[in-house]
Write a structure and sequence with these properties.
This protein is of the alpha/beta class. The chain has a domain of about 80 residues. It contains 11 helices and 19 strands. Helix 9 runs antiparallel to helix 10. The chain is globular. The model has no long low-confidence stretch (mean pLDDT about 95). Keywords: Monooxygenase, Oxidoreductase. Pfam families: FAD_binding_3. This is FAD-dependent oxidoreductase.
Length: about 375
């Protein structure tokens, strides 16, 4: 299809890049605005469940993603002290591969798939003013743009969310996460000492450590934690440097494999896990939100980015159904078809109960945002 009307996506993160790719492939005129001055390989590991790999298939990026990451057979949950398996979920058989990968590598794949003439860096949004027939955007470099609708994919501190609902600081969850990569000779030594699981979550009473490979060659191992912690003074930064000493203290008494992983890790960082309560509205006028701008969550279910990408797929379907002339209906359909699922994942993730005991994860992994029937506003299905 072709559309003369213009869409602006604010934020070129995982959700924004997915929305840009899907909408551009569907024939919409889409510009993506990112406040960072250039692309950088930030973050570390990320899970891409079958529910999300199906969307990469639609984006034309499935094969490339599979070449980048590891494809574990199962998500294994172990007792943090004894190492005993307490739950194990087969992640195969859901119509697509389960992939663990470096976030930066996946993000680079997404960003490179966009129309590069429509991707704009160094564009921090200052204001977005709605008119009857348009939205006027102004960026901090003095440039402006006129568009028909604006998709806020600009994260937990979303400017678009602020315009809809006013200023409100994120809520500190009471937990922090530590992140580190293990590679090179240190990983080889660790592999020689322990039979490392491809994808494992080590559980304790009030904390955990998730660990998995981020490359197809299994030459990079990553861990991320969830640990109760007093509020961090990050001085405006998203993360701080941590230390081996802090990690040993946080995981005292854990299994020797955990101690060895801490010893082998380099450049340990720590960041506060923030979230927000479910939003009362997902759109207003010509503005609509997706991903962390809409439903941020703690990362304990490995589905935060996944929900943003599912949002992008469903929003694209709804806009295709109505066309941009009827964006109001499209936004209502999008919220109707996404809110319950995103809210449930947000609640389970924040509670940190997913796969802590044996359970059927098909409600997460078997879902297909591209083929699930769209529930219509009047109750019909299409």
């Amino acid at each position: 299809m072709t559309e003369s009307k213009k869409i602006a996506i604010i934020g070129a993160g995982l959700g924004g890049a997915a929305a840009g790719r899907l909408l551009q492939r569907a024939g919409f005129d889409v510009d993506v605005y990112e406040q960072a001055p250039e692309f950088s390989r930030i973050g570390a590991g990320i899970h891409v469940g079958p529910n999300i790999v199906k969307i990469f298939r639609e984006m034309g990026l499935e094969q490339e993603l599979e070449e980048l990451g590891c494809d574990p057979d199962a998500w294994t949950s172990r007792d943090g002290s004894t190492g005993e398996i307490i739950a194990q979920a087969n992640v195969r058989g859901y119509g697509a591969t389960y992939i663990t990968v470096h976030r930066g590598d996946m993000h680079a794949l997404q960003v490179s798939s966009l129309d590069q003439s429509k991707l704009h860096y160094g564009k921090k949004l200052e204001s977005a003013v709605q008119h009857n027939d348009r939205v006027e955007l102004k960026f901090n470099d003095g440039t402006t743009a006129t568009v028909d609708i604006v998709i806020g994919a600009d994260g937990i501190n979303s400017k678009i969310r602020e315009l809809l609902l006013g200023e409100e600081a994120p809520l500190y969850s009471g937990w922090v996460g530590h992140r580190a990569l293990i590679k090179g000779d240190k990983l080889k030594k660790l592999q020689a000492e322990y039979d490392l699981d491809d994808c494992v979550k080590w559980w304790h009473e009030d904390r955990h450590m998730m660990a998995y490979y981020t490359t197809k060659k299994r030459d990079e191992y990553y861990y991320v934690t969830g640990v109760p912690h007093p509020p961090l003074d990050t001085q405006g930064r998203s993360f701080l440097e941590s230390s081996h000493e802090a990690m040993y203290e946080a995981f005292e008494g854990f299994h020797p494999c955990i101690q060895a992983m801490i010893e082998a890790s380099e450049n340990i960082t720590i960041w506060p896990l923030n979230n927000r309560n479910p939003l009362p509205v997902w759109s207003e006028g010509r503005f609509v939100l997706l991903g962390d701008a809409c439903h941020p969550m703690k990362p304990h279910m490995a589905q935060g980015a996944g929900m943003a990408i599912e949002d992008a797929a469903m929003l694209t379907r709804c806009l295709l159904q109505t066309g941009l002339d009827d964006y109001t209906t499209a936004f209502k359909l999008y919220e109707l078809n996404r809110k319950d699922r995103a809210t449930k994942v947000q609640a389970v993730s924040n509670a940190n109960t997913f796969l802590k005991q044996p359970e059927d994860p098909s409600w997460v992994y078997a879902y297909d945002a591209l083929t699930t029937p769209i529930v219509q506003l009047a109750g019909e299905v299409a």
